[in-house]
Amino acid sequence: MRDFLFGGLLAVALSSGVAASGSPVIAARATSTTVQAVTITGNAFYQGSDRFYIRGVDYQPGGGTGVESDPISNATACKRDIPYFTKLGINTIRVYAVDNTANHDECMDALAEAGIYLVLDTDTSKYSLNRLEPKESYNSVYLQSVFATIDAFANYTNTLAFLSGNEVINDVNTTDCAPYVKAVVRDMKQYIGSRGYRSIPVGYSAADVSQNQEILADYLNCGTDDQRSDFYAINDYSWCDPSSFTTSGWDTLVANYTGYGIPLFMSEFGCITNTRTFTEVAALYNSEMTGVFSGGLVYEYSEEGNGYGLVTISGDTVSPNSDFTYLSSAYAAATNPSGDGGASSTSAATTCPTESSEWDVSGDALPAIPSAAEKYMSTGAGTGPGLDGDGSQDAGTADNESTGTATAGSGTVTETASSSSTSGSKKSSGTTMAPVDMKAFGAFMVAIVSMIGGMALL
User: Fold this and answer.
1) Among residues 68, 167, 214, 374, which one is catalytic?
2) Would 343 disulfide with which of 44, 181, 209, 233, CB 3.0-4.6 Å?
């Protein structure tokens, strides 16, 4: 539940300059042939002709300190942890933030040798959409960072997928962000294609918000192929041991998403209300779910002061706890179904949802890519800002924000938007910061919340 809203509150406004254009400075290279690229057919992932199920953990050591760091550029720590990944029996890690100026070859190669793929968030705390100011934070400074991250990881064979955002929409008052979330998906897909990279899946990680999670799923899967997400991921903590397929409501999840036309997986799961024995793993990889879900990622590998860690890290020492042992046993016992596991071979678009009290979006138009960012499609993003840049959320100007709506796939402005919106979405009444799940930020972020608690946000 890592939340990047704070970047807009803490970052200094970025100056008007952007990184130089041209070929990416980081020359990403193909990883070992130990792994082959994962592709999508219908509503499932495939490794060659074999169904691929994500079995993984979320991985961001140090994430609870409040100081962002890149675990993939730290080859020593990465190689320290890979043997524990192997003991867990995982094939995928999710990383929430990376430094797009760093070199990642050594860790990515080591992960590939271990048969481990990467699901990567392209946002950081400083470079992300601000749910309270989506129009202003959807700007070329932000997109340049996103595209630079794609450049840094696109040529690794074991880059499984990119996530365009995490829980940007986290209640009923922030659904007006949806057109901007979807525009970023579109822009990332267009950038990957324009730069000649292989077709790396792009999707979004949604919060467990009952009022709009399924509506958002329909929205991200409606429209033309260039606008649709390649997959949809959900953060779900509804299975709290002792539980069951029906007690947890996972049977309802399956029923609600049956027929959904793109792959679906859990980008976070693992309730800590009681002892975590991970009995949900058996259900997740059972045929009762695999026709709809393609596995998931347990939150999270390292203990960050929130109780969710599988191991405690102290310098070079890794100490697994009982959760680690339970999860390792659960993954080992969960055999994938034979064949395609009930997957669908067709990818059907959904109908775009209509505006309602729980969905603050009218119409299907998306904001056009800012003209200042469109040039990256042909020139490349250039050098990224890394983790220490000035940030993008307060960097929006009339010159680098979107100024209208776009036709499907063109990025061309087709009409002038009103001053309040570029998406056909009216501004939500949510003018105060929604409660933030602090499990990912630890004690440091609790202090930050206290410090800014009295500040006006808009």
Assistant:
1) 167
2) 44
Worst-scoring range by mean pLDDT, 61-70, 126-135, 294-303, 392-401? 61-70
User: Would you say 383 and 19 are in contact if contact means Cβ atoms under 8 Å apart?
Assistant: yes
Q: Which domain holds residue 240?
A: 6-333
> Could you confirm whether 68 is annotated as catalytic?
no
User: How confident is the model over 129-142, as pLDDT tens digits?
Assistant: 999 999 999 999 99
Find out whether 54 and 265 touch, Cβ atoms under 8 Å: yes
Both tokens assigned to 254: 């399956």
pLDDT band at 441 (very low <50, low <70, confident <90, very high): very low
- Name the burial class of residue 285, with classes exposed (0-12), middle (13-18) and buried (19+) by CB atoms within 10 angstroms of its CB: buried
pLDDT digits (tens, 9 = 90+) for 171-221: 999 999 999 999 999 999 999 999 999 999 999 999 999 899 999 999 999
The answer to the question of residue 242 being in a domain is yes
Report how many domains make up the chain.
1
pTM, rounded to two decimals: 0.85
- Residues 142, 128 contacting (CB under 8 angstroms): yes
| Domain assignment of residue 363, yes or no | no
Q: Pick 381 or 445 by higher pLDDT.
A: 381
Give the burial class of 434: count Cβ atoms within 10 A of its Cβ; 0-12 exposed, 13-18 middle, 19 or more buried: middle
Distance CA 284, CA 270 (A): 12
Q: What is the Cα–Cα distance from 277 to 295, expressed in whole angstroms?
A: 17
Q: Of all helices (H) and strands (E), which one includes residue 92?
A: strand 92-95
109 part of a folded domain: yes
| Catalytic-labelled residue, pool 68, 133, 214, 268 | 268
Q: Residue 166 and residue 211: Cα distance in Å, rounded?
A: 17
408-424 burial, b for 16+ CB within 10 Å, e for fewer?
eeebebeeebeeebbbb
User: 458 lies in a domain?
Assistant: no
* 34 φ, ψ (degrees, to nearest 5): -60, -35
- Quick one: 245 exposed, middle or buried, by C-beta within 10 A (0-12, 13-18, 19+)? buried
Angle at 350 between CA 209 and CA 253, to 5 degrees: 40
Tell me, yes or no, if 167 is annotated catalytic: yes
Question: Tell me: the pLDDT tens digits for 214-239?
Answer: 999 999 999 999 999 999 999 999 99
Q: Read off the CATH number of the domain in which 50 is found.
A: 3.20.20.80
String of b and e for 32-41 (b: at least 16 CB within 10 Å)?
Answer: beebebbebb
pLDDT tens for each residue of 48-98: 999 999 999 999 999 877 789 999 999 999 999 999 999 999 999 999 999
